[in-house]
Amino acid sequence: MKPLAVVFALLSGAAGCGKGGSAPGRPAPDSAVKDPRTIRDFHALYASNCAGCHGSGGAGGAAIALNNPVYLAVADDSTLRAVIAKGVRSTAMPAFAQSAGGMLSDEQVDAIVKGIRSSWARPGVLDGAHPPAYLAQQKGDPARGKSAFGTYCASCHGAAGRGGPQSGSIVDGSYLALVSDQYLRTLTIVGRPELGGPDWRGDVPGRPMTEQEVSDVVAWLASQRPDVPGQPYPTAQPLAGGSQ
To answer: Is the pTM of this model over 0.70?
Structure first.
């Protein structure tokens, strides 16, 4: 083959690489990274922002399960939106809205709220029951709360809340330092079904907790929260064979 013909053949082959695909080194048309600000898909937003704590499919993890229909029957959309957008001060729940220093637009926060509701809420789950209000209606009393805890919670968490046959400590100082009083109230009302924890109706069969009892238990738990959480630094020990 003549040199000129070889060059023409090579050029023709290179030009043909673009037919039906991309030329070598050129990104495929569908490989462009999507601007995260344009994402509105609930599943994509949840996986990127929520699943790390609340579990895949809302099944729970370090934080409560969001696929708990009792929780969704107690917490309305404005509650969900406020928690997602603004976070919860002094806890592990951060703010996700751009207006509060997060990464999500208001439209993306709304997409998460709507997705949680449409995916996991179940109308009629309360079966006519009237749960205690999501927000406390009256101040709790720690002394009464200790007694109510013994009635409703000690069988799982132990008489002093330090752990029992079915659940761990609920008065651990480091744990209490990471959760708000509202979180404790929410857990007391809706339970943690993914861990076998019943809601306010199931601790004592036929005897649901009252509004006041929930507030009192939360007050007693909050009273166990230390001023300075965590373990103290160990006392320095002198080095063997020398002074320090």
So the answer is: yes
What is the enclosing helix (H) or strand (E) of 120?
Answer: helix 106-120
**The tokens 């601007």 sit on which residue?**
35
- Domains of the chain: residue spans and CATH: 36-120 (1.10.760.10), 142-223 (1.10.760.10)
Give the integer Cα–Cα distance in Å for 224 and 222: 5
Q: What is the pLDDT along the chain (244 residues), one digit of tens a residue?
A: 555 555 455 555 555 555 555 667 777 777 777 788 889 999 999 999 999 999 999 999 999 999 999 999 999 999 999 999 999 987 889 999 999 999 999 999 999 999 999 999 999 999 999 999 999 999 999 999 999 999 999 999 999 999 988 888 999 999 999 999 999 999 999 999 999 999 999 999 999 999 999 999 999 999 999 988 776 666 666 666 555 4
Q: Strand pairing partners for 69?
A: none
